[in-house]
Amino acid sequence: MKSNRITALVLALTPILLSSQSLANEATVATDDPVVALEQKLADKRSEISSHAQNLQTQRDKLDALLAERETLAKSAIELEKKRTLAQERLDEQFRRLIENPDTDLTQYRDDYQVAWNAVKQNQSDTLTNDQAVSEQQRIVEGENRQKQLLMSAMENLQEAKKEARVKRLRQELTFADTIEVVHTITCSESLTLAACANQGKTLTMQKAVNTFQSQVLENVTESTTAKLNANRVSFNIHVMNNNVVDSGFSGSNRYITRMQAEMRSQPDEDAACKLLDFAERYCVEKPFTTRKPLLSSRLSVG
């Protein structure tokens, strides 16, 4: 009875375990692709740049506020100095009167001058404090600006690295081998002999095989959509390693059908990946490619 319960539990958990394993496999595939890893680094760097931009703006706002305060203090200094000068003149006037009249009261004028003088001194102290704060904040902003440049440089480096990784990945994907089977039908004119009709069918079927193989190569690369847009700029150098006519013969009036299996391999030019991705040629690191000429060019078209 206990054994049955354990068996039931294992069966119930099996889909969950398989699902977890599948997710783990997908994660492994993703992390194995350098382009995916660089895309994550770029996303992280963009987030870091965005966060830094907010902080930089905050520091710039603080500096702007301090500079505005400096301007206010400078204007106040002019007004306060005027008030102090006026209070000084009034106090001096009262001192002259005191000589003529010993009963002259200086208290109010002395107090007014002291208030004016204190205001001037406070403004000078505030200005000194502001100057120090401005200098410190300018240092902070300059440091943040340097950090911004470092972050942007790091971003550019990652973008360059991603381009190089994309080229490398596509180059690996373009070197592709497979065996395909195609069927092609032609209409033979009555003037053609059976052998001539068969040869024409084989030639055109081979052309179709090459075109089909090239389409398969483009379909299977990671950046298929982009590659297809620029495919006409590239020579795929498709080599026919082996071919075999599986079946051939007439079907109906003058219709000749050829079924062919062909083993093929693509070895594009070393700059093919750059052309397909529309990158500058400098991203294509020179690597040796076979110099063997293809038996049949991928530029052939089906008639």
Count the strands?
3
Q: Indicate the structural class.
A: alpha+beta
How many domains make up the coordinates? 2
Largest sheet: 3 strands, antiparallel
What is the CATH architecture term of the largest domain?
Answer: Orthogonal Bundle
Mean pLDDT metric: 86
The N- and C-terminal alpha carbons lie at a distance of 73 Å
CATH fold title of the largest domain: Helix Hairpins
How do the strands of the widest beta sheet line up side by side? 1-3-2
Based on Cα principal axes, name the global outline: rod-shaped
> How many whole angstroms does the radius of gyration measure?
42 Å
Percentage of residues in DSSP E strands: 5-15%
Helix content: 55-70%
Short key terms for the protein model shown above:
disordered C terminus, alpha+beta, single chain, three-stranded antiparallel beta sheet
Short description:
This protein is of the alpha+beta class. It folds into 2 domains: about 35-165, Orthogonal Bundle (Helix Hairpins); about 175-285, no CATH class. The chain is about 70% helix and about 10% strand.
Structural features, described:
The chain is α+β, with helices and mostly antiparallel strands. It is 68% helix and 12% strand. It has helices at 2-32, 34-100, 107-174, 194-220, 224-229, 272-277; strands spanning 176-187, 238-250, 255-266. Strands 1-3-2 form a three-stranded antiparallel β-sheet. Helix 2 (34-100) packs antiparallel against helix 3. The two termini are 73 Å apart. Residues 16-20, 22-29 and 287-303 have low confidence and may be disordered.
